[in-house]
Each structure stands twice: as structure tokens, then as C-alpha cells.
Specification:
The protein is mainly α and 294 residues long. The longest helix has 32 residues. Helices cover 70% and strands 3% of the residues. It has one domain: ABC transporter involved in vitamin B12 uptake, BtuC (Orthogonal Bundle). The N and C termini lie far apart (49 Å). It is globular. The strands form two sheets. It has a two-stranded antiparallel ribbon with strand order 1-2.
Length: 294
């Protein structure tokens, strides 16, 4: 059976690849949306934190014999702690000034991280193995689904929805949102707002690291893996609406699918389709699809 002249298996395979890419877009844009929505920081270091998370998993396996499942917990904690250190030592001084300074600082941090990892690991790239429990593939009848890619989609959706529920449907989330809008009032009720802000940035960094660990068995690890992805992820956040958590999740998945379909029907445009959509959305709705108009 063909769809527009393309074999069904090839068509569905590209859809699956698009959904996997969309899962990474959703997780990374989620971390960006959390940090921007709650702290007002355009965190250009997010791609570097994603890269560091993948390399932490690689180093844990190479030097300590710690496998994928433990790395999925340890790497976000390590990178989250790094995020806390960045927020406490650098970013906390920039909250009350023009946001462009935060963007420039985090952009500089990403360049430093890339330089350090390029010096240590070179640019040729490293391989990270698929965990034994997720090797192989499952025959769905109409296509062969690699088990690990199916796991990536499920895990990304679970993490994204859990984060959305935590921020939008819990008391802690209400404190976070209130603390960003009126920190003095929230602090008057006994809430430690600086601590909350610090942990929020650390959690956003941890989400980026978790995406990096999930990506490690799928792609080749290089110091530039974050910078190659972060521009697309920023476009995803802009299309969904800056600071909109649900918008980032849905837009990331949707654009992954659109990118996958574009590779089937018009491969030459697959690298720019996200930016074309961003331009169209900004002309029609500058706040993004799910953002709030001011």
C-alpha cells in the first residue's frame, strides 16, 4: 500500500522518526519554557546542559560501569546541581535588569562548555550503547518499531506531562507561579522565594540532561550536539508561546511530526520547515499558538 506514491512502511517509519525527534524537542523546550516562564531568563545554555547530560551518562558508563538506567537518574541530578551553581553564582545578579544580559551570559556559558568538551573529547564523537532490556524491535504488523525508540517516546511524554501537572495542578506549582509574579508577597507568607527560584533553574537543567541521556543511544555524542539542536528548540518555544509549558510540549511533538513528513514529501525543506512555520505563526499570532496576548 502506498501513500502519495510512498510505501506505507517508509511513510510510517518517517512518522516514527519525527515523533522521536519531537519527543526530544518537547523535553528540551519544556525545560526552556519552565525557566523562561517562571524566571524570565532566555536560557541559551540549555543546549550545552543537554550535551553535558549525555556526556555524564557516557562517562559514568566508561569509568564507573554505571549503566543507562542509573544514568537516567544520576545525570539529571549532576547537571541539575550544576544549574543550581550557575543560578546562585551568576544568574541571580541579572534578574532585575534587561533580559538580554541573561541571554548573553548563558550564550557565553554554552560556548565555554562546548570548548571544554571539544578539548577533552575532540569532535569525532562517541557511541553510547542501547540498554540490553531495550534492544531489538517489535513487529507491529505494518512496521518494525525499534524498542528503544518506542521507549523514548513513552518516557518523554511521561516526563513532560508530569512536569506540566506539577506546575499547573499542585500547590508547589502555584507557589512557583505566584513567586515569579509577586515575590515580595509570596515571601511575606513564609515561602523562601530565592530557594524556589534556584531549584526551578536546577530542575530545568535536569530536564535538559535527561533529554541528553535519552538521546545518547540514538545519536552520536559530540560537543556540538546541543548547539545543533538548540536553535530548533528555541523556534519550538516561540511557536508554542514563550513560557507556555503545555504549548511547548504539544508544539514540540507536532513539529517533530511535521519535520518527519517533510522529509518524506520534500526532503530539501526539512531543515527549514520549523523556521518557516515560526515566521508564519509570528505574523499571525506574535504571542505564539498557546501564549497569552498582552
Amino acid at each position: 500500500m502506498d501513500i502519495f506514491g510512498i510505501p506505507l512502511q517508509a511513510f510510517l517509519g518517517q512518522l516514527l522518526l519525527g515523533l522521536v525527534n519531537g519527543s526530544f524537542y518537547a523535553m528540551l523546550s519544556l525545560g526552556l519554557a519552565v525557566i523562561f516562564g517562571l524566571l524570565g531568563i532566555v536560557n541559551f545554555a540549555h543546549g550545552a546542559l543537554y550535551m553535558i547530560g549525555a556526556y555524564v551518562a557516557y562517562l559514568l558508563a566508561e569509568h564507573l560501569g554505571i549503566g543507562f538506567w542509573a544514568a537516567l537518574v544520576v545525570a539529571p541530578l549532576v547537571v541539575g546541581a550544576l544549574g543550581v551553581a550557575i543560578e546562585r553564582t551568576l544568574l541571580k545578579h541579572l534578574y532585575n535588569i534587561d533580559p538580554i544580559y541573561g541571554l548573553l551570559l548563558t550564550f557565553g556559558l554554552s560556548l565555554i562548555a562546548e570548548g571544554v568538551f571539544r578539548d577533552q573529547f575532540g569532535v569525532s564523537g562517541q557511541q553510547y550503547p542501547v540498554p540490553d532490556a531495550l534492544q531489538g524491535a517489535t513487529n507491529l504488523g505494518f512496521m518494525i518499531l525499534p524498542n528503544y525508540r518506542g521507549f523514548v517516546i513513552f518516557a518523554s511524554l511521561a516526563v513532560c506531562l508530569a512536569t506540566w501537572w506539577l506546575i499547573e495542578r499542585t500547590r508547589l506549582g502555584s507557589y512557583l507561579r505566584a513567586g515569579t509574579e509577586n515575590p515580595k508577597l509570596v515571601q511575606a507568607f513564609g515561602v523562601n522565594v530565592p530557594m524556589m527560584v534556584m531549584l526551578t533553574y536546577g530542575a530545568g537543567a535536569g530536564l535538559a540532561a535527561m533529554a541528553g541521556v535519552l538521546a545518547a543511544p540514538v545519536i552520536q555524542l559530540t560537543p556540538l550536539m546541543g548547539s545543533n539542536l538548540i536553535i530548533v528548540v528555541f523556534a519550538v518555544v516561540v511557536i508554542g508561546g514563550m513560557g507556555s509549558i503545555l504549548g511547548s510540549i504539544l508544539t514540540g511533538l507536532m513539529l517533530g511530526l511535521v519535520e518527519g513528513l517533510t522529509k518524506v514529501f520534500y526532503p530539501e525543506a526539512s531543515s527549514i520547515v520549523v523556521f518557516v512555520i515560526m515566521a508564519i505563526v509570528l505574523m499571525i499570532r506574535p504571542a505564539g499558538l498557546f501564549g497569552k496576548e498582552k
